[in-house]
Amino acid sequence: MKVAIVYNYQSRAVLNLFGVPSREIYGIQTIELIQSSLQSGGHEVKSFEGDKNIIRQLEDFMPPESLKENPGLVFNLSYGIQGKARYTHVPAILEMLGIPYVGSSPYAHAIALDKVLTKVLLLQKSLPTPRFLVIDEPGLAPLEELKYPLILKPKDEARSLGLQIVENMDQLLAGAAEIAERFKTQVLAEEFINGRELSISLLGNNPVEALPPVELIFGDGPAIYTHEDKTKQSNRKIVKSCPAELDPDQLVTLKQLAIRAFKALECYDCARIDFRLDQDGQPYILEVNSMASLEPDSSFAFAAGKAGLSYCRLINRLIEVAAERYCF
Asked: Among the ranges 2-11, 60-69, 230-239, which has the highest mean pLDDT value?
């Protein structure tokens, strides 16, 4: 099968640069590893940057007649170049062109990128999530309903960008003002759940398979997974443990909640659901990651390995589940 890997790395080939720039990219080494994994699976593979040239490049690589004879897919790794809805850009182009692709639709990405909208949807589906409020103007934050400490984050960023924990109103006002100025967006404030942090990675569609749970073991400093931790800029080591030690009932509950959240947002093929367990063992959904990282050291790849899927097999399995969804 022809597989086009579409990603964002350094190209800024758009008509104009404006608005919110993407702060997320895959490293070239990971893109090359994914390409070699797919080639070892027998696929014809090329890689392209997800910029304004992508339509012509895909048409050259997988013209309409080839799609009829030998269905092709796009392996979407594109976080987008700019804009608040940047995850949606490449999938929307692919849907317009009629090219099948791995991963969720523009609809699911748009909801997942908006943390407030995600939480509202989770609550409508009776799925547990920490209590929260949205701060439109940092100096006018009506937060009497929430209990400190609070987590602050921009409402539409990823990779824990801007994430911070605050203990009182002074810290809250300063933190909210900083986030609003830096990210030009509303600020989400939610109650900090003091307890364990875990994630459930999901693979497939019908059925959705829940991979073994991964727990983050925090060292010194606050028990939150910051952007600096994720990008290895902090001076501490966060240990990932998989499978996390859970009793059977907890494990079943987490997997069920993760799959329900996946379906609530209408995700496809893969996602990662982040949780907190409070000190009584009650779970709370923090986020739905519709574009969970597939870096070799990611929680997703780690969990897949514990489930018996090598990195190469995981990448090829993603092609298979997407092809099944398109009835190839």
From this structure: 2-11
